[in-house]
Specification:
Layout: H1 6-12, H2 29-37, H3 43-52, H4 57-68, H5 72-89
């Protein structure tokens, strides 16, 4: 990856631990509120959903958009963030 946002770089710099879902690159404050309302308050719970979908990027993005109210940009950025995190730590 040639260009990494500071937020993505920070997220990838260490294990997820107890990071809040808003720490995931691409997750806006508004989207975080929607995710928390659906029980996805921690980054690891969102990662779990991504893994349950077998890291299928398109399926995960559709879920974020349809079920959580993400924009296409938010869905792409957050999916990329989790995919990159998996590449680094799994």
């Amino acid at each position: 990856m040639n260009h990494m946002s500071p937020r993505l770089r920070a997220f990838l710099s260490e294990p997820i631990g107890e990071k809040d879902v808003v720490c995931v690159d691409g997750i806006s404050h508004e989207l975080a509120i929607n995710l928390v309302a659906k029980g996805f308050n921690k980054a690891y719970t969102l990662l779990g959903q991504f893994l349950l979908m077998h890291k299928n990027e398109m399926e995960f993005q559709r879920w974020l958009i349809c079920c959580c109210g993400a924009t296409e940009c938010e869905a792409q950025e957050s999916t990329n963030c989790l995919k990159e995190w998996c590449s680094c730590f799994l």
